[in-house]
Amino acid sequence: NAGVTQTPKFQVLKTGQSMTLQCAQDMNHNSMYWYRQDPGMGLRLIYYSASEGTTDKGEVPNGYNVSRLNKREFSLRLESAAPSQTSVYFCASSIRQGMYQETQYFGPGTRLLVL
Amino acid sequence: AQSVTQLGSHVSVSEGALVLLRCNYSSSVPPYLFWYVQYPNQGLQLLLKYTSAATLVKGINGFEAEFKKSETSFHLTKPSAHMSDAAEYFCAVTSIDPYNNAGNMLTFGGGTRLMVKP
Question: How many pairs of residues across A and B have Cβ atoms under 8 Å apart?
């Protein structure tokens, strides 16, 4: 049981280049999330997918697109990278536990540097 | 709308001393609160969570937190700090609509970096 996995671990891009960050979970979770982490700002939600086949914008979606490929996989795409997208990106997944509880489990992160 | 404020972006304690990391939240509905820990170059790991049961919540590694509705606080404590506790700690809040099957929306505080001096 690997939990939440992310690839790549580290990436350097030039401004204007595109790339896709991959995320997979093997916990049979329904919901998946993409966050970015910047110093002093905690984690901010970019996009989430409540269930297979659905995606919704979070707090900071501009410049990103997502695809929920199947129940296990949720990818994040940067179509034209900008220096402001230099950050650490975390994928997370969760399942409803009872009616009110949901704990999110996080991957190890992808460090992205845009020059 | 919901928000989280963590007072003190950096906290330094001596080994063996009390650890107190502060978290205040704002939520228009009953909240569910979490503390996560992040060790260097790693993802976030759940320390503990409050989900409307007992107000004093015990987590892993000897940490605990107390939910105080009147103070809208959920401070994290540990009686005696260890060197291995040095990490960044995040408080997060969510509120789940029982009539909506959408995933919960976690809102994070800015984080507190805990340093432990020998």
Answer: 77
